[in-house]
Amino acid sequence: MAKPLRLVLLRRAILPGLLALTGVAALAGPALARPGGWNDPYGAGPGWRGPAMDDGPASAAHSADPREGRVEVSRFVSAGPAAASLGKGQIAVGSTSADKDFMAFSRRATFEAAVIDALIRQGYDTRHADAPGHQSASLRISRSVLTPAEEKRSPVSGTAAMEVGSRGSAYGLAVNVDLTKPRAALVQTRMDVSISDPASGAVLWEGYATIATREGDAKWDDGRIAGKLAEALFDAFPQGQKVDAPHFVPPAPPAAPGDG
């Protein structure tokens, strides 16, 4: 009888300690896990097999924008016989800027130079642009904001969740650390070029090219943007979609005396 009594006393002494340790493990274990534990069958939470916890807005905000650096081009050429003179003779280049998106001439000069280089490669003479009968190339540069700049935000964010069920309680914590800087505005630069006949003023060829870049991005200065747009625009020149009169608007007749 003495041996069973010792076993009983030993069990009574050890069992509370084991239960205490088990309780600590049960509380500490789920605290490091996500709510619901491992695929909780009692519906306390989604479990590890459920959908992943949200990483926060930063991961979506800094995903690559597919529009960055992509060039889009449209070209039109006159269906008339005068289009045969494209790529020959002298040509003069001038530029303007949209009123609402004004660009100073000091910046437009970079785009003019890129267009002049492209025209020379296509067979034009730009050194004698004042010769009689020269064609005219009109360049127009405009810029517009596609996506505004991101606002400043806290570099640390997170979410917490607590759940209580029949099998115990669980606590989940997710911390997101984002040390990246807010993105600058995504800006579209558009280059429009039209080439007109000197005699009639009719447009023989025109086209436009656009590119989207981040404002202030050192990789995309005016020189690189201008070169990229001009190269894409005059690729396979003077080919283009044939039209009778490519967006040509005739000049308004002069006002008669006394019309005010």
Outline:
The protein is α/β, with parallel strands linked by helices and 260 residues long. It has helices at 2-32, 57-61, 105-121, 222-233, and strands spanning 71-78, 91-97, 135-147, 156-165, 168-177, 186-196, 203-214, 241-243. The protein contains 4 helices and 8 strands.
Structure report:
Helix 3 packs parallel to helix 4. This protein has helices spanning 2-32, 57-61, 105-121, 222-233; strands spanning 71-78, 91-97, 135-147, 156-165, 168-177, 186-196, 203-214, 241-243. The protein is elongated. It contains 4 helices and 8 strands, in the order H-H-E-E-H-E-E-E-E-E-H-E. Strand 4 (156-165) and strand 5 form a beta hairpin. The protein has 260 residues and is of the alpha/beta class. 25% of the residues lie in helices and 28% in strands.
- Provide mean pLDDT, rounded: 74
Going by helix content, strand content and strand pairing, the class is alpha/beta
The percentage of residues in β strands lies in: 25-35%
Q: Which sequence of SSEs, written as H and E, runs from N to C?
A: HHEEHEEEEEHE
Radius of gyration using CA atoms only: 35 Å
Strand order across the biggest sheet?
A: 2-3-6-7-1-8
Low-pLDDT sequence parts:
5-11, 13-61, 248-260
Number of strands: 8
Helix content: 25-40%
